[in-house]
């Protein structure tokens, strides 16, 4: 595998963007608010892990009776030296019922239509997407696996 300065990235390839460098919205924030059929209007947290930043986004839940609920999200974030980028998007929800009971809420990715617990805004973009559609990887995937290769070497002897 190999880190940023390893030979894996030496042929003109750019380092992959990580989940930790993008703004993230979590479906779990809306869990309790989706049960209130009156809707919700207020702020929801949009977080970025590296460097840590939390933005309060304007949020409005729309709860139609015979359709999946939706959330209108509006926030802006700084990007390089340019004016802040505004994100204004409607996000759809879906629910599943686990075997152990209860109800679990998910976002429906606007790009691929798959249910996801987290959606991300890639820096410089104006909409939420899932990890796969944004081409994002986890930071741990970019680190070298020296310990694993050493353990594997001695295990095979």
Given as residue ranges, the uncertain stretches (5+ residues, pLDDT < 50) are none
Rg on CA atoms, Å: 19 Å
Which percent range fits the helix content?
Answer: under 10%
Give me the number of helical elements: 1
User: How many domain modules?
Assistant: 1
**Main β sheet profile:** 6 strands, antiparallel
Provide the spatial order of strands within the biggest beta sheet: 2-3-4-5-6-7
Distance between the termini: 22 Å
Strand content: 35-45%
Global geometry: globular
Count of extended strands: 8
**Which series of helices and strands comes N to C?**
EEEEEEEEH
- What is the arithmetic mean of pLDDT? 79
Task: Report what the structure shows.
The chain has 157 residues and is mostly beta strands. The protein has one domain (16-155). Helix content is 6%, strand content 38%. The protein has one helix and eight strands; from the N terminus they run E-E-E-E-E-E-E-E-H. Strands 2-3-4-5-6-7 form a six-stranded antiparallel β-sheet, with no helix packed on it. It has a two-stranded antiparallel sheet with strand order 1-8. Strand 2 and strand 3 form a beta hairpin. The longest helix has 10 residues, at 146-155. It is globular and about 60 Å long.
Chain-wise SSE layout:
Elements: E1 23-26, E2 40-48, E3 53-62, E4 70-79, E5 82-96, E6 104-108, E7 115-116, E8 118-121, H1 146-155
Antiparallel strand pairs: 1-8, 2-3, 3-4, 4-5, 5-6, 6-7
